[in-house]
């Protein structure tokens, strides 16, 4: 199929998503406890936007003409990698689905999507909409199931040519092993994170506190780029702690269908218990619990927005990805010190910097080993901005033209030249 034809189908797919925004947002709320209002306003429209971005790229996939040193005419072809297996997580069922599927379809690949067992509903509905949009049978396949069975089958399958996985670092290792032991399929991984959020003395403290709250508690902390390691320069540290606690206490936790609610429930009992366990670990390690730290109500998996101070860099709550509404606050003095602290992690997914000093912003953005650096903003995702990690946060980019390239492979074609007046 031509890129033009693929683009037309992807645009139709996006049209159908926009016609079903309410239903799709409801499915993700029911499955994952996500705020319905946020899904309706951001997640679902964002999926359509991303589809349209890659629909526009589908007929602009070009190779190059090579200026060879001998009497040869050479050029490259950009070809679809083949069948792509996508294993996607439960925290952003729609967003992650289209991070993976949109560029793969634009490139001309067929895809097999294994949604998380906690959140299969929207993926199944997207398969239905794709068929209505005119996607040929067999091009988009959604296979619900559990990781150790369905996920493992996709990872080890000899007819899957490329594998993309988003999830924990531990499972990422298993995915790489399965790919290596089967047909050596290439793998791209978007794994855990423990992102630093760094506030300097010159920051507007109200803006910084609100941004830190946004970075740490969005989607009840169930987000790989959550800015939960909060470093605040000593000059404003005490004032920051006081205001951050006030903002956290005002957060409304409850029914994610209620538009007045700021935070819904954790996705399931396992995640709920994991977060509470880490809160207990933080207390035992000697961190000071400033606010939160308890379950909300006597029904459901609700947890109060939680803030710890007196956190040391080697504590579990400062090193491990908790994936819940837990903020670890730490103090620093100098730029050099906070660079070292920010990089003292096995992860490298993102970082936030709040400062009015362009020199500090430039120094920090070039010194922190992370794939996305957000200055005076956070969660600044955009279809044109590549996203992916350093270190144990994985490799391979989503979004942007980088996201398209990983579903293409380059073929070189060479023919002899005879009686040509120039090379």
Explain this structure to me?
The protein is an alpha/beta fold and 423 residues long. The chain has helices at residues 3-19, 21-32, 36-57, 93-107, 121-133, 147-156, 169-181, 205-217, 237-250, 269-285, 316-319, 335-342, 358-367, 400-405, and strands at residues 65-66, 72-80, 83-87, 110-114, 140-142, 162-166, 187-190, 196-199, 229-233, 288-291, 306-309, 326-332, 350-354, 372-375, 394-395, 408-416. Helix 2 (21-32) packs across helix 3. The chain is globular, with a radius of gyration of 23 Å. The model has no long low-confidence stretch (mean pLDDT 97).
Write the layout of secondary structure elements.
Blueprint: H1 3-19, H2 21-32, H3 36-57, E1 65-66, E2 72-80, E3 83-87, H4 93-107, E4 110-114, H5 121-133, E5 140-142, H6 147-156, E6 162-166, H7 169-181, E7 187-190, E8 196-199, H8 205-217, E9 229-233, H9 237-250, H10 269-285, E10 288-291, E11 306-309, H11 316-319, E12 326-332, H12 335-342, E13 350-354, H13 358-367, E14 372-375, E15 394-395, H14 400-405, E16 408-416
GO molecular function: oxidoreductase activity, acting on the aldehyde or oxo group of donors, NAD or NADP as acceptor
Protein name: Aldehyde dehydrogenase domain-containing protein
Family: Belongs to the aldehyde dehydrogenase family.
């Amino acid at each position: 199929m031509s890129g033009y034809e693929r683009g037309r189908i992807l645009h139709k797919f996006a049209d159908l998503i926009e016609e079903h925004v309410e239903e799709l947002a409801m499915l993700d709320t029911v499955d994952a406890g996500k705020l319905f209002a946020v899904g309706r306003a951001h997640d679902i429209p964002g999926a359509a936007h991303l589809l349209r971005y890659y629909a526009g790229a589908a007929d602009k996939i070009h190779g190059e003409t090579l200026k060879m040193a001998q009497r040869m005419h050479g050029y490259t072809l950009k070809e679809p990698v083949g069948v792509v297996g996508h294993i996607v997580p439960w925290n952003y069922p729609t967003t992650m689905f289209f991070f993976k599927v949109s560029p793969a379809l634009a490139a001309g690949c067929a895809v097999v999507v294994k949604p998380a067992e906690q959140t299969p509903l929207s993926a199944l509905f997207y398969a239905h909409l794709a068929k209505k949009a005119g996607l040929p049978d067999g091009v988009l396949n959604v296979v619900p199931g559990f990781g150790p069975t369905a996920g493992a089958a996709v990872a080890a399958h000899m007819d899957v040519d490329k594998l993309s996985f988003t999830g924990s670092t531990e499972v990422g290792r298993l995915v790489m092993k399965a790919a290596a032991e089967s047909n050596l399929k290439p793998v791209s991984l978007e794994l855990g994170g423990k992102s630093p959020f760094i506030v300097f003395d010159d920051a507007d403290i109200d803006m910084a506190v609100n941004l830190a709250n946004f970075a740490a508690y969005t989607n009840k902390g169930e987000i790989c780029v959550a800015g939960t390691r909060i470093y605040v320069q000593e000059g404003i540290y005490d004032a920051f702690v006081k205001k951050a606690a006030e903002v956290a206490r005002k957060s409304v936790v409850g029914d994610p269908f209620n538009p007045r609610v700021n935070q819904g429930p954790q996705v399931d009992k396992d995640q709920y218990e994991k977060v509470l366990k880490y809160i207990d670990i933080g207390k035992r390690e000697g961190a000071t619990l400033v606010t939160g730290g308890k379950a909300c109500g006597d029904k459901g998996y609700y947890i109060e927005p939680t803030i710890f101070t007196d956190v040391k860099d080697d504590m579990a709550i400062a090193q491990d990805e908790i994936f819940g509404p837990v903020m670890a606050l730490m103090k620093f003095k100098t730029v050099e010190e906070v660079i070292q602290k920010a990089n003292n992690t096995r992860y490298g997914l993102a970082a936030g910097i709040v400062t009015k000093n362009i020199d500090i912003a430039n120094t920090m953005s070039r010194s922190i080993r992370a794939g996305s650096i957000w200055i005076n903003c956070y969660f600044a995702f955009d279809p044109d901005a590549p996203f992916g990690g350093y270190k144990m946060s994985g490799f391979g980019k989503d979004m942007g033209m980088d996201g398209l390239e990983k579903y293409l492979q380059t073929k070189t074609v060479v023919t002899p030249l005879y009686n040509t007046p120039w090379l």
